[in-house]
Amino acid sequence: MAPTSSTLAAPLQPDIEYHPNEEKWRVRTARRLAEDPLLPTTPLPRGFPQKLESPLVWKGSDWMDESQWVYELNESQLKEIDDAVKYFNALNQPLGYVSPTTFPLPTLSPILSELSKELHTGRGFFVLRTIPVSSYSKKDAILIYTGLSSHVGSLRGVQDHNNAIISHIKDLRNSHPEKTIGSPAYTTDKQVYHTDIGDIIALFAFETAHEGGTSRISSSWQVYNDLAASRPDLIQTLAEPWPLDGLGGTPAYSMRPLLFYEDSKIIIQYVRRLFTGFHGISRSTNIPPITEAQAEALDAIHFYAEKVALGLNFQKGDIQFINNLSIFHGRDAFVDTPEKTRHLLRLWLRNEELAWKIPTELQPTWDRVFYKTSLVEQQFPVEPEMLLMKGAKYA
Ligand SMILES: [Fe+2]
């Protein structure tokens, strides 16, 4: 008998949470493979490569020593930075006007340009060490961070509906109701592997945690190769449209793939919490659930990324730059004390000369983040705030 509307059950959200559960992942994988043993013979999406060959493909175990990715600033470079602070402050301009011209770094600028090339065509990450944070006011520390970053990528992305350019990554549960917090950025929780928005992410350590909070990165190009070799069906799943939660905004959800192959480059853009909810904000119930295949793919990304990740020894005064299109990032849970309260600042950057071609489906986001706000409108909140994206009700 053909099913009628009364016998057809609406699809349910799979049993999956923000924090990945390895046992649930293995059980789901075994069940799906038992139901369809031919899944691993699924062809890759048309045109997608069997294997990426690039310095962007790496495993954490490939790196022996942090001197391979940490660039230590010397005394004369720190003096150059200090001179640039004085130069910019004498101009009496809003911070939105910080640029390689208004924050001049005669000898450091060519080095930062080379490091930016490393982000786009090399290993995809580096760390600058050490900005003497405690020697500056918060505003000048933000100026240094913004100024140095402008030599890596001169376009800065807006991170909320009020044109905030800086976001503060800090546990804000003391000042904000738990029910309003939907992002681990504002808690002490572990953050699973994910990407942000934009070409480059810069993170500046104002202060590190009393314990834990290790920053971890993982090459999504390596994860792509591993998945393409073992589970090409999950590559197919990732390249199909997914329902992204609009977090109480309008529209309630949007559809797009998480994985793209554009201009001979694999690009992944995804945040797990938009498919699982997080903390005080559950996944919206008035939007389509994800599928079992998508749930498996989410866990596979996380656990494959975890296996090849690199933990960074992120110190107070460090700035970490990563290629957000080819590297996942995450962090361990942490414990703060009044003396050691983890506090990072984040910028989203784009270097137009070196930038990759952005897939059509992501272009509206890039337009909104990088091309709609004038320099004078850019805001640089000095104190931590919870940022809301345009249209969203929750962070
Ligand atoms: Fe992030």
Automatic annotation (TrEMBL):
<dbReference type="InterPro" id="IPR003819">
    <property type="entry name" value="TauD/TfdA-like"/>
</dbReference>
<feature type="domain" description="TauD/TfdA-like">
    <location>
        <begin position="98"/>
        <end position="348"/>
    </location>
</feature>
<dbReference type="InterPro" id="IPR042098">
    <property type="entry name" value="TauD-like_sf"/>
</dbReference>
<keyword id="KW-0560">Oxidoreductase</keyword>
<protein>
    <recommendedName>
        <fullName>TauD/TfdA-like domain-containing protein</fullName>
    </recommendedName>
</protein>
<dbReference type="InterPro" id="IPR050411">
    <property type="entry name" value="AlphaKG_dependent_hydroxylases"/>
</dbReference>
<dbReference type="GO" id="GO:0016491">
    <property type="term" value="F:oxidoreductase activity"/>
</dbReference>
<dbReference type="Pfam" id="PF02668">
    <property type="entry name" value="TauD"/>
</dbReference>
